[in-house]
């Protein structure tokens, strides 16, 4: 397999059941009920990267996968756009690709989004094909965003999580309580 075709893939707990999860392994806990695994992109179909299948450590492969993700964003395969959310406030949305939720791992996500949204950023990865970044304006606005996201994702078959994350200049961390798993219906 070609390491240029591996990508990080943000997934719900059901995708990692029975597999080893560790901070330095092939499957890592992102926070709340979300995980990141490495997959091969087989032209729109993906398959897990198995231990020992590619040369290099898991850390090296994760680094390569994030670089591949960055290339996909730069090439326009995964679209990042600034839109308007509740109250007319700016939000950044990643979409147009099955791995769009993985944009939560982009090293310069905070730098990019804070220019448009502000310095206090929250991020949602409700399904594999979407990521939304919005300002932590106040609790009312956060609830409005969650309602907007729930409405937009209704019926999406590849749900990830309804929980939120905070993004800062140093990375991603869970924000607030872990919410119940999203329903597909």
State the gist of this model.
The protein has 3 helices and 10 strands, in the order E-E-E-E-H-E-E-H-E-E-H-E-E. The chain is of the alpha+beta class and 185 residues long. A hairpin with a 5-residue loop joins strand 5 and strand 6.
What does this structure look like?
It is globular and about 50 Å long. The protein is of the alpha+beta class and 185 residues long. It is 22% helix and 31% strand. The protein has two domains: 72 residues, no CATH class; 97 residues, no CATH class. It is built from three helices and ten strands; from the N terminus they run ββββαββαββαββ.
Record the SSE blueprint:
Blueprint (H helix, E strand, L loop, with lengths): L5 E6 L15 E5 L2 E8 L4 E3 L9 H17 L4 E6 L5 E6 L13 H9 L3 E7 L2 E6 L3 H15 L10 E5 L2 E5 L10
Antiparallel strand pairs: 1-3, 2-3, 3-4, 5-6, 6-8, 7-8, 7-9, 9-10
Considering the chains and any ligands shown, give keywords for the structure.
185 residues; alpha+beta; 2 domains; 6-stranded antiparallel sheet; 4-stranded antiparallel sheet; 10 strands
Average of pLDDT: 92
Query: Could you describe the largest sheet, including whether it forms a barrel?
Result: 6 strands, antiparallel
- Portion in helices: 10-25%
Number of strand segments: 10
What does the oligomeric state look like here?
single chain
Q: What is the CA-atom radius of gyration, in angstroms?
A: 16 Å
Contiguous runs where pLDDT drops below 50 for at least 5 residues? none
Q: Could you give the distance between the termini?
A: 36 Å
Bin the strand percentage.
25-35%
